[in-house]
Amino acid sequence: MPDTRLGTPEIYADLQHRLLTGGFAPGAKLMPSALHTEYGCSANTVRDVLLQLSKIGLVEFEIQRGFRARNVSIQKRAEIARFRVLLEQEGAVASMCNGGLEWESALAAAHHRLMHIEKQFARTQDTIPFVGIWSDAELAFHRTLLSECRLPPLQETFDNVYMQFRQQMVGLESNCVPSYFHRIIQEHQAIVDAATAKDEAALRSAIQNHQARHTERDVSATR
Amino acid sequence: MPDTRLGTPEIYADLQHRLLTGGFAPGAKLMPSALHTEYGCSANTVRDVLLQLSKIGLVEFEIQRGFRARNVSIQKRAEIARFRVLLEQEGAVASMCNGGLEWESALAAAHHRLMHIEKQFARTQDTIPFVGIWSDAELAFHRTLLSECRLPPLQETFDNVYMQFRQQMVGLESNCVPSYFHRIIQEHQAIVDAATAKDEAALRSAIQNHQARHTERDVSATR
DNA sequence: ATTTTTCAGAATATCAAAATTTTGAGGGAG
DNA sequence: CTCCCTCAAAATTTTGATATTCTGAAAAAT
């Protein structure tokens, strides 16, 4: 798409964005030899970027077999969602214990910003360009939630899992219903309330409920 | 070291092994242009392998600044250890709930194999060649512990974290005292006992105790 | 004396082409 | 009809060379 000469970071960002917004069909082959013309660079450069993207789980890499956009399935989304809940519960509880007033304030600020975007969202029909900025704001909110947990490895893992989860979402549901966002606003509010009240059990429940739609175990699937 | 022509998987395995056994000083620069002669391949091939190793956290990669063996510190080891405990507790408890007799048996088998190696270990002075096989057996034991948790993302993350933890260990303590292994045998036994007894609280404690030496928070470090 | 600039050496990123491997279709043998 | 073998097209990996960027020390300026 872009016609100017791009550096590796730009190619990385663009490919990540496409992966996260349905720019590639799930499981689609990602061929450096095909993509390099789009970015006006060599195939090897695309290969490097794809290798880096496989690091965060958005791209599957198999030796001698190239790259693919990660496959999606209800089962896989459920596994990722349950792992995400696990990480977020532990991280949020730790943040709640460590974090002081400045953490609560940051959380309130992130939530306010997110609500503002979500309200704009509900008013607009043209949802496509909004998913990107909404997702950034939601990620910022959840990052703030974990920001004081003092476990960098958990935070890094959460970032990856969050993006993998998002990839599963857009791969499985191409359209976003507006009522969906109403529920999400309430769920975020419950998280903020529990964190502010320093109620560990409530915080865990709120985080669990936030993903309840996706964590149900699918007994029919044989994986 | 090897004089025959090596494929990428062999180079990957060898570099991983060196990273995990102190073959590189912590923070040491890993230059494709220097390593490619050792493996009889081009610098770019080494670069690819290092990119893949950075995926599991053993190698740090910064754009335009190359690769480094990951740095070690008491602080970093503590963070990794605490994250490891968290993952292992959740994974083991889930495995205990899901796993049946075949899981208990597999766990007992992995533990028996590990004990056998540990006893040989205590008898030998020449510890260096043993650390590799002991570590493989210990990893197998902990993998078995999580094998029935039905959370593939957690299992993958645990593998990475386990290796990062090992890297911190060998980077911080070059010598392994034999008494160290006596304690570890008992700690593993406690994990097996709790899992067999289906005692969730005891299992969590046993896993926590297994890393207790490393999870202490270092208040003096300002990170 | 401290800071800034310059400059060569070294290391990294990128490239286009060659070598290797995989894939899939077509043709024979059982 | 099925299975296996062969072979050519396509894709991936590797290579060696080129271009860009970084590093550190010496020189110049404040």
Major sheet size, sense and barrel closure of chain A: 3 strands, antiparallel
Spatial extent as radius of gyration of chain A: 19 Å
Q: Which strand order does the major sheet of chain A show?
A: 1-3-2
* Number of extended strands of chain A: 3
Q: Determine the mean pLDDT of chain A.
A: 88
The third-level CATH topology of the largest domain in chain A is Four Helix Bundle (Hemerythrin (Met), subunit A)
Distance between the termini of chain A: 37 Å
User: CATH homologous superfamily of the largest domain in chain A, by name?
Assistant: GntR ligand-binding domain-like
Oligomer: homodimer
Biggest interface: A-B, 23 and 23 residues
Overall geometric form of chain A: globular
- Whole-number tally of structural domains of chain A: 2
CATH class label of the largest domain in chain A: Mainly Alpha
CATH architecture of the largest domain in chain A: Up-down Bundle
Describe the structure in your own words:
Two copies of one chain form a homodimer. Chain A has 223 residues and is mainly alpha-helical. The first copy, chain A, folds into two domains: 8-69, Arc Repressor Mutant, subunit A; 74-215, GntR ligand-binding domain-like (Four Helix Bundle (Hemerythrin (Met), subunit A)), CATH 1.20.120. Helices cover 70% and strands 4% of the residues of chain A. The first copy, chain A, has ten helices and three strands. The first copy, chain A, has helices spanning 8-20, 32-39, 43-55, 74-98, 101-123, 128-146, 152-172, 178-196, 200-210, 212-215, and strands spanning 29-30, 59-62, 66-69. A three-stranded antiparallel sheet of chain A has the order 1-3-2. In chain A, β2 and β3 form a beta hairpin. In chain A, α4 packs antiparallel against α7 and α6 (128-146) packs antiparallel against α7. The longest helix of chain A is centred in the middle third of the chain and has 25 residues, at 74-98. Chain A is globular and about 55 Å long. Residues 1-6 of chain A have low confidence and may be disordered. Chain B binds a DNA duplex (30 and 30 nucleotides) through α2 and α3.
